[in-house]
UniProtKB/TrEMBL annotation:
GO molecular-function terms, A-Z: guanyl-nucleotide exchange factor activity; translation elongation factor activity
Recorded GO CC terms: cytosol; eukaryotic translation elongation factor 1 complex
Family matches, as SUPFAM superfamilies: eEF-1beta-like (SSF54984)
Protein name: Elongation factor 1-delta
Organism from which the protein derives: Branchiostoma belcheri (Amphioxus)
InterPro entries to which the protein is assigned, alphabetical: eEF-1beta-like_sf, EF-1_beta_acid_region_euk, EF1B_bsu/dsu, EF1B_bsu/dsu_GNE, Transl_elong_EF1B/ribsomal_bS6, Transl_elong_EF1B_B/D_CS
Biased composition (Acidic residues): 138-155
Domain (Translation elongation factor EF1B beta/delta subunit guanine nucleotide exchange) ranges: 188-274
Domain spans labelled Elongation factor 1 beta central acidic region eukaryote: 153-179
Family: Belongs to the EF-1-beta/EF-1-delta family.
Amino acid sequence: MTVPNTLTPQNMDSVEPVWFDRFRVEEAEYRYQQHLADQHSGLVVKEGTSSILNEIARARQNIQNSLSFPGEGLQVGTSVGGTEVFARLSTLEQENKDLRKITNDLKALVLKLESRVVSLERGGAAPTNSPAKPVQKEEEDEDDDDDDDDIDLFGSDDEADAAAEKLKQERLKAYQEKKSKKPALIAKSMIVLDVKPWDDETDMSEVEKSVRSIATDGLVWGQSKLVPLAYGIKKLQISCVVEDDKVGTDFLEEKITEFEDYVQSVDIAAFNKL
């Protein structure tokens, strides 16, 4: 920016003002504010220090007073809560006495038990010796009574034993008869057989007729149906109920395969216990 050498009323408005001493003013203001802050902090520290010193001085004075007049402190404490403290002390003393009494009683009881155990271990038979004679006397009296009634008692025992044995035999006989009359449980099974023919020209009605012609004790034939296999061939699926002790699967397979003109093979499709 170019400043004209001469200032005239015409060019005064076009010249911008410049503050060359601004940094000096700012520095002076900063120092002033710092001075104020130092004075304020020193005041606070001084006040805080004075209050702490006062508290310390007061505490020292209280300690000195307590040391100088110990009776006054004791008198104050006694007057404030003396009654309650004495009551508690008396209660504690009474409880202490009771506990001591209970402890002494328990101790005496334990000592008594220990002495009794020791005496029993050393001479356990001694306490039982005194009543031994009366017991022996009673046994002798009983023996005398037995000798007096010797014959009658033995006769009564024999009769009672005979009656008990007879009753036992009767009950055993009745139980055996009841058990023999009870029907025995018969185990049964349901079997489903697949009977396959030779080809599609086999007459399946004749196959079923031949299978049902097998009859024996414990065999009952059930429902049947034709199940398609392949290429027009069908198999006969027939069910039956058998008694396990009388009829088995081997028996059925052997009997059915005897119809060799119609039957190619026999398979067990299902086997269930009833």
